[in-house]
Design brief:
With 312 residues, the chain is α+β, with helices and mostly antiparallel strands. It has 5 helices and 17 strands.
């Protein structure tokens, strides 16, 4: 909060300076903007860097994760990358400084089919060989992948408060992308019994909005490897809502996650082959805080084919 608040104050002051400049007919001539076209400021400007910087990034070509939390209020950001495709997918994450727009480098990650993997900010920065320099006080992640079913989540965590939340802000959701190419719905990074034992049990929220009864198939995937660990059917009534503890799903498919298997993905389909008429969500209970959190939202890296306006 403090980083963004400080940045906002600078912008306000700068805006006021521009207005004052415009009103002063005796002001000196404008700075020659052509000197900045290579990304390097003239040496006459105090504090100018001693080397060229990469120019600003065209964010319309990326999925953008911003703002990131780098200790603000005790919170830190984490990035989760999901591959809904049938083969290993490549993700690139470009680190962009704020407020300068400096491109500090790009990290590359390989995500197995059906897998969803979480990375800390430090892992991304090391992968991009990025070192943030003044005057930048924060940075953003710019994502790309050619996989049509590439997704991502931005989550934040406060170790001191033992509190986490889903901070994802999307142009498009992963449900938009999945439903455009397959009769399925998906949730990622569902807490298994390993995290439930640490005080963070999860549940699946499902609503059948069809006006008839329907049976849905749950395909359960270990999130890091992308391996399928089990399947089960779940019958529903017309227009009925269900809250399904994850522990019941593990018991039904006879899966006992190991200490390293803390997350799972779930794919929901209609046994009839039709598109599932479901609203699907995930909630997590923070036992220590006695709070229930909705952590459903996952973004799509790419626009679903039916929503694209760029001809791609």
């Amino acid at each position: 909060m403090s980083v963004r608040g400080a940045a906002g104050a600078v912008l306000l002051v700068f805006s006021g300076a521009l207005q004052a400049f415009a009103a002063d007919s005796t002001a000196s001539s404008a700075l020659d903007a052509s000197a900045f076209q290579t990304g390097r400021a003239p040496a006459s400007i105090a504090g100018a860097p001693d080397r060229e910087r990469a120019q600003a990034v065209n964010g319309s070509l990326y999925a953008v994760v911003a703002p990131l939390y780098i200790g603000t209020g005790g919170f830190y950001s984490y990035l989760r990358l999901f591959n809904g495709g049938a083969a290993t997918a490549t993700f690139t994450v470009t680190v962009v400084g704020s407020p300068t727009g400096t491109n500090y480098g790009t990290a590359t990650f390989q995500i197995p089919a059906r897998a969803s993997i979480q990375y800390s900010m430090s892992q991304v920065l090391v992968g991009a060989n990025a070192t943030i320099r003044a005057p930048d006080t924060n940075f953003s992640f710019y994502l790309q992948s050619t996989e049509p079913l590439a997704g991502y989540q931005h989550v934040t965590h406060s170790p001191d408060a033992t509190f986490f939340q889903n901070a994802s802000v999307c142009k498009w959701t992963i449900q938009d992308a999945v439903s455009a190419v397959a009769p399925s719905a998906v949730l990622t990074h569902v807490h298994t019994s390993q995290l439930a034992a640490q005080g963070y049990p999860s549940a699946i929220e499902l609503h059948n909005f069809a006006n008839v009864a329907a049976t849905y198939r749950f395909t359960i995937v270990e999130s890091t490897s992308g391996n399928i660990v089990g399947e089960m059917n779940f019958p529903t009534r017309a227009n009925a809502s269900y809250t399904i503890p994850w522990s019941d799903i593990e018991g039904q498919i006879n899966w006992n996650p190991t200490s390293s298997q803390i997350y799972a993905n779930i794919v929901v389909s209609d046994v009839s082959g039709a598109a599932p008429a479901v609203l699907l969500g995930q909630t997590v209970i923070n036992d220590r805080l006695e709070a229930t959190l909705n952590v459903t939202t996952m973004c799509a890296v790419n626009a679903p084919p039916s929503l694209r306006g760029d001809g791609r």
